[in-house]
Amino acid sequence: QGQLVESGGGLVQAGGSLRLSCAASGRTFSGYAMGWFRQAPGKERELVAAIDWNGGSTYYADSMKGRFTISRDNAKNTVYLQMNSLKPEDTAVYYCAATLGGWSTEVRRYEYWGQGTQVTVSS
10-13 and 117-122 as β-strands: parallel, antiparallel, unpaired? Predict the structure, then answer.
C-alpha cells in the first residue's frame, strides 16, 4: 500500500502563513484526487480543499476561499496546502487523503490517509 506523510505544521501567529506538504511513497498518486481535511477537538473532520488528479480543478470550503491554496506536483508525488491569513479557528490537525474515485467532501470516500500534522494558530 501507499503511504501519505504530512509535514509543515507548527505554531504560527494569527495573520501568518504556513505551507503544508503531503509526501506520498510506496506508489504514485498521480492518478488520484487529493484532499486536505482538518479536525479540531470536539469537531467533525471537514474538507479544507481538494484537487483533481492532474491539478486541473480545485475546490475550497467557503471559509478557506481566498486564504488557502491547494496544489500538486505529480513528478514529486507531493501535494501542498498554502495557508495564508491564518486565524485561531484554523487550529486543527490537518490530514491529506487520496481517492481514485474523484474528489469528494465525504471522509469515507478517501482510501488513503496520512497521520496528520498539527497546526496551531495563536491570537
Answer: parallel
